[in-house]
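Attaching the record inline, Q. Sequence:
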Amino acid sequence: AAKVLKLEYDGLLFAPIFYEESVSFLTEYKKKNTPIVMIDSNLPEIEGAAYIGQNSYQSGFLGGKLISYGIKNDSNVLILKITRNVESTSRTNVFLQRIKGFYDFFKEKENLPHFNFTEISIKYDIENQLTTTMFEGIDCVFIPNSRVYIVAKFIKDNQLKGIRVVGYELLQQNLEYLNEGIIDFLIHQKPEEQGYMGINHLYKKVVLKESVTDLHYMPLEIIVQENYTSTKS
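Structure, as predicted:
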């Protein structure tokens, strides 16, 4: 990041991963007065930057709908936040927005059965953090990022049955467990298309000098076992 700040570019395409470092870097980069396009994650703190990606709140709202779909009886839902740094989940905008949207779905839908919620945060690179005790009485699991395969592997290895699993991203590991029927729904963010549109945005703004909309939300796409092969390019 320090090297990038010393060099001169006509535009920046950036995918925020580490929240605090990204805000610090982009705040400094803004002083160059060149276009910035963020993909995957939006940082509202960075005014004047474009964003191409999902509406995180709406995707969480959709996650709630997928969890509740067809459920007729009271259910227990486990929300598993799996990150590099457990403490960072409270500061990561994508996590916060997805989880807020998830809860808001259940608040708005008064005709649903009663859902009980439990939240657990773990670090993805430490073994044996999941326990069967965590899953006792659990009917559904929502993972608000791409590491849903960690949960799916645990469910398979421990032969846990009757648990609906909803997560994000078409990682190969996720698709394998989707195909096995362990993961029920994946919300697809179309990362390749985000990157393409990000470069196209910079091309229009920097080269063609066109006026371009700075906020573009990608459509939410639901992937299930029966349709995932059609998403491959």
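The longest strand covers residues 75-83. The first helix runs from residue 2 to 6.

More tomorrow.
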